[in-house]
């Protein structure tokens, strides 16, 4: 009887061990399969982002490049530069020319395509502004100095190794990117005094925000500080510019809003 009980107890212990072993393996397998599915999902999402973000970055740059068209059309209609400064158009053009050199040195086709189209449009914007400005001396001087600088940079950078050329072109490209994104804020004192942000180009300000955020992500993917730093600054400048536009709208739009409010009150 005692032997029979011992045998039963031993069999029960063996069964318990078998159950634990089998279910433990099953649990481990389910955990492994769940981890594998998570890894596969992460891999697919990473591949999707690596393919999507460059395309979105290029698209945002193209939209940013065409955003000043509304401003240049208003300049053409008025046959005057109105309240718009020359600096945003000038720095946009020169910065994209130098970015084109940077793309050639690094063999980045996405940057090369966007920089080529943007520099062509930038040349058009500079031409429209220069044609309709009354004082051409300062824009002419700025263009001559920029042409000499680009020529000097091209002669010194392109014959070198890609790593050296990346540094030589990257530093002025970084400086010009910062100047391009912050150039609309050169009149910030007048904006705050007059409480009128009509001198800020709306399209360029909004696209500073959008393009800066997308290109910052793309720069993080490439681990390229020459792309990350200027676009983070462009994102910050875009936030400031858009905030000023909404805080201090143009006087004409405010007047139109007051007139519409008065019309509604009279109708009531």
Automatic annotation (TrEMBL):
Chief location bin: membrane
CC terms in the record's Gene Ontology section: Golgi membrane; plasma membrane
Protein name in UniProt: Sugar transporter SWEET1
Residue runs in coiled coils: none
Family: Belongs to the SWEET sugar transporter family.
Domain of life, per lineage: Eukaryota
The keyword NADP appears for this protein: no
One Pfam assignment: MtN3_slv
Annotated membrane topology: Multi-pass membrane protein
Keywords recorded for this protein, A-Z: Cell membrane, Golgi apparatus, Membrane, Repeat, Sugar transport, Transmembrane, Transmembrane helix, Transport
Protein's UniProt keywords contain Secreted: no
GO molecular function per UniProt: sugar transmembrane transporter activity
Annotated TM spans: 41-66, 86-104, 110-130, 142-159, 165-185, 197-215, 227-248
The encoding gene: AlNc14C29G2757
Subcellular location: Cell membrane; Golgi apparatus membrane
